[in-house]
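Onboarding guide, step 5: your first structure request.
Type a short instruction followed by the sequence, for example:

Predict the 3D structure of this protein.
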Amino acid sequence: MSAPPSRVVAVVSNKGGVGKTTVATNLAIYLRALREDLPVLLVGLDDQSVVDRMFALEPIRPDEPNLKHAWAERTLERAIRVGQYGVHFVPSPPETEALKTRGEDSGTLSRILARTAWDGVIVLDTKGDLEALTRNALVAADRVILPVSDRGSLNEAGKALALLAAERRADRAKVLFTLVDARTRVEVGGSELLAVLEREVAERRWPRFRTHLSRSPRAEALISAGGVPLSVLHHARGTALHRQMRELTEEVLCDLGVDARGPETAHRAPRRVGEPRGRAVGDWKMALLRGLRGR
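The system replies with structure tokens like these:
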């Protein structure tokens, strides 16, 4: 009997600074919190170490299999590691040039994931480009999240949508407004930037997520706190971003055809190794209520 197909989510932007990696890493954690029975695998398609630093339980040894080895073997199986918060991940490669050469066929990653047969959700964090590896992610994904924070990233989202349209997969993408600050206004007419972006996306008839992600200095500081990126779920409670990440995750699960409620159990926020139990982590449902009430 064959394993159920993986559900794949890719976070894609050809522009840096839009919160792409923050969305991908925290989405993986929120998926585990909402559906603790659902295996989640995070794969970074670049040579940055954010995923490794955030999820590795211990330092990654140079001789351990990483994405480069997995790509050559055409399966992620040997490189998958269990990480913090119960999220599995594939260690990042030291460089991606060789992978780009091997990824000129945009269907390569799809075949690798099919052969891996991950029974759960795979989250792909892509590099800030639309080159070979990102194109592989676009083809492999069941849902493509396109972060947009300004007109520049809006135009770059259009390029990604054009690539998807060429593959007849444009219906798999949705725009996600990120780093939104209600105080930011455009010069012409003094309109709020978010309202302007929403209007332009509507005029282009691009699908978008109902929620948006607010700019949060507190949350942004988590990326570099102590050299180890920290999660919004555990360290930004009481912020609008905490509630919005939960809403985004529920919408992603719905898009993938997965019940966000899961089995009838009391969900708890997945604990980071080394964190105290009890109040410091707390009950997942109570944490959501506190977030919704702004506490």
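Each response can be followed by summary notes, for example: The longest helix spans residues 151-166.
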